[in-house]
Each structure stands twice: as structure tokens, then as C-alpha cells.
Design a protein that fits this description.
Elements (H helix, E strand, L loop, with lengths): L6 H5 L3 H11 L9 H13 L20 H10 L3 H6 L26 E11 L5 E4 L9 E4 L1 H6 L7 E9 L4 E10 L21 E3 L3 E2 L3 E6 L2 H17 L2 E6 L5 H8 L4 E5 L6 H20 L3 E6 L2 H12 L8 H11 L3 E2 L4 E9 H6 L1 H8 L5
Helix pairs in contact: 2-3, 9-10, 10-11
Length: about 375
């Protein structure tokens, strides 16, 4: 199934993709093994040194019908234009994995398989909740969350959830079956407080005057220096009890790999897509996620990689060239830079990064940023 596998190719895969390859190659219990062990066993199976182990329950489509949740999910989607835009019938491929081996086949809903998902909870204008998975499913990525699940796990918009879901292939969506983590913590630890008391920022993150709850623009020499800056600062901030979130929309594959290797980062929000609208929506996910962590009493630092490119994304979506800096673009940038607050329990601090080349070549954009905050 996976021809031409090399150690170099495996090293470039994220942990979820690596587990998927391991499972299909016949590595036993891939979710319980470290990266280096997975890679070693995959290569040994490919060379014939190790015998593959397969679970016979994996990969067989389930064709039974009739679970009430199926009907409820249809009712949620019908008439909600935002959800309908994401949903379309799917074809089966090897992205769809059965991760739960304890199900009773006769009680399964109309679904081809059970998928693993991870993503940030979003809400439509009609108050329906959904997640667009970050685990690179080849086709549709939308997972519907019903009101009962939101209440059961005490969830709010912006929470990062990880779990498994029933995949309705013919309908184009998945429905949550089980949640294993909320904001990288067990579901039982999910507590938040929307009633917080604002305070004047007092805890210094960096000398002389950048404090928890502030925003700033930081100028680097180039993109590599931006990544080095994130690597250095995320380690410092993590030691001070902060969670570090990196927003890297439209980041190249090589850039994403470098960011993945930084230990101090809690979450990287990076979606490569051909439409500007998709990127703008994911920026909203980033703002929602940092606010969710804040409501859970966390100190958060949000790094926005290459902020000049974000301005271009917004302008491409909001206006037709050659018009520049529409009101909506200005509003979007203000939202990013205003994404800072402090309370007695937590804080949000935002650092927008840009390169010296951008300062020299695009002074108008820099002036626009400097209207909202200072380095």
C-alpha cells in the first residue's frame, strides 16, 4: 500500500500521519509507541525483518442503519448555510481508520468507519457547533458537535478537542463519538470561568516593558529569524507558565516542519488552502482558541508569523486589487493586535512578527501596524 517508504519521508510526517502509515503497514499498537520506534518498525516490516500484525476488524464498511443521532445531525445541518458549504458526500479512502475496536457492529449508525479528529470548536450564526479537523483527512474534515455533547463536556467555542467520531461517508460529515482531550488535558479537568475581573498588566514577559496582557510588533531580519525568535521566546515564556500558540497561515511545508520541532509551542494553527476566505476563518479560530485558554485560567502568548502576509490575505479576500487596506482588513488587524487582556487568573499577549525586508519594501503596511501598537 505504501510503496517507496524511506526513513527520510517518514521523518517528515506528523505523528498522526505516521501512526496511520504504521497501522496500515502492520505495526502493532501504534498509538502507544514513540516516533523513533514507529519508524524503525515500519522500515523493518518493509524489509521483511519484522512480521506485520493486522486487526481483522479494521477497514470493513459498516452498513447497518438507524441511530437517532443520525437524524438529529441531519436536522442540524439542513438550512444552516455555513455547515452546508462544508458538507458533501465522500468516498472511502485509507484516511478513515477504525480506532475503537470495542464497538458492536449491529449498533453502529450508517457510517463507513470511525475517524480520529482534532480541531478547534467553531460556531455558526445559527448557533450550531462544529470542528474542522487538523489531522489531514483527504476529503471532508467537518465534525458536528451536538448540544448534548457541548453540555456533557462543558465545552465552549474555541476549545481544542481531540477524540473519535462516526464518519457518515454518504452524507459528508462526522459526528462526535468520544472526546479524549480538551485543550490537551483530560475532559474531567475542563473548567472555565467567563466571569473574570480585568486587571492592569503587571507581570513582565520581556524587559523593558512588554507585560502579560500586552500586544506588540517585533521586527526580525527574515523568516528564519522569526522562527528562531519564536523558538527562544516560547521556551522562556513556557518557563514562566505561559502556553504559546503560533498562527502560521499559509506557511510553507518546510516552515511548518521547523515550527513542529519547537518544544515550547502548545498549538500551531496553520492551514494551507487556496482560498483567502478559509484563511480568514482560521484566523478567527486562533482568536477563539486563545480566548478559550484565557477563560480556563491560562496565560497565553500568541505569535503571528509574518503578519504582512496576513494583511495580504485579508485584502485579497475583502477587496479587489489595486484597492488596499479596506475597512474590513483594518478591522481584522485590529482584532489580532487587540487580542490581549489580563485578569487575576490568566492573560493573553500577542506578538506580531515581520521581517526587515517587509519594513524596507512595504512601509505602508508597517505604518498601518504601528498605528495599533509599538515594538
Amino acid at each position: 500500500m505504501y510503496n517507496g517508504i524511506t526513513e527520510e519521508k517518514l521523518e517528515k510526517l506528523g505523528i498522526y500521519d505516521l501512526r496511520r502509515v504504521a497501522r496500515h503497514c502492520g505495526v502493532s499498537s501504534p498509538t502507544s509507541k514513540r516516533r523513533d520506534v514507529l519508524i524503525t518498525e515500519i522500515l523493518k516490516i518493509q524489509s521483511g525483518e519484522l512480521k506485520p500484525v493486522f486487526n481483522n476488524k479494521i477497514g470493513r464498511p459498516v452498513k447497518t442503519m438507524g441511530e437517532e443521532g443520525d437524524l438529529q445531525t441531519n436536522l442540524i445541518i439542513n438550512g444552516d448555510k455555513e455547515l452546508e458549504a462544508y458538507v458533501k458526500p465522500q468516498s472511502q479512502d485509507d484516511s478513515y481508520l477504525v480506532l475503537d475496536q470495542n464497538y458492536i457492529e449491529g449498533e453502529m449508525p450508517l457510517s463507513t468507519n470511525i475517524i480520529e479528529f482534532k480541531g478547534i470548536i467553531n460556531k455558526t450564526k445559527q448557533n450550531n457547533y462544529y470542528v474542522i479537523s487538523q489531522l489531514k483527512l483527504k476529503e471532508n474534515k467537518i465534525v458536528i458537535i451536538d448540544e448534548a455533547t457541548m453540555n456533557k463536556f462543558n465545552l465552549i467555542q474555541g476549545d481544542l478537542i481531540h477524540g473519535i467520531a462516526y464518519l457518515y461517508v454518504n452524507k459528508g460529515y462526522a459526528r462526535v463519538k468520544e472526546i479524549s482531550e480538551i485543550n490537551d488535558a483530560p475532559p474531567s479537568e475542563n473548567k472555565y470561568n467567563l466571569d473574570f475581573v480585568p486587571v492592569i498588566p503587571s507581570v513582565v514577559l520581556d524587559a523593558p516593558d512588554f507585560k502579560m496582557g500586552n500586544s506588540k510588533v517585533h521586527i526580525c531580519q527574515n523568516l528564519d529569524d522569526q522562527i528562531k525568535y519564536i523558538q527562544q521566546k516560547s521556551k522562556e515564556y513556557m518557563q514562566k507558565g505561559c502556553k504559546c500558540v503560533v498562527v502560521a497561515l499559509e506557511a510553507r511545508f518546510e516552515t511548518k516542519l521547523k515550527l513542529d520541532m519547537i518544544d515550547g509551542i502548545t498549538q500551531i494553527i496553520s492551514y494551507m488552502d487556496e482560498t483567502s476566505q478559509f484563511s480568514v476563518e482560521r484566523m478567527q479560530d486562533a482568536l477563539n482558541y486563545t480566548n478559550s485558554l484565557f477563560y480556563h485560567g491560562k496565560n497565553v502568548v500568541m505569535f503571528v508569523l509574518n503578519i504582512i502576509s496576513q494583511i495580504s490575505i485579508f485584502d485579497t479576500y475583502f477587496v479587489d486589487r489595486p484597492v488596499k487596506y479596506s475597512d474590513k482588513t483594518n478591522l481584522s488587524i485590529r482584532k489580532i493586535l487587540a487580542n490581549s487582556k489580563a485578569s487575576t487568573e490568566g492573560s493573553i499577549s500577542t506578538i506580531c512578527l515581520l521581517s526587515q525586508d517587509d519594513v524596507e519594501l512595504k512601509p505602508d503596511e508597517v505604518q498601518m501596524l504601528q498605528r495599533y501598537c509599538k515594538d
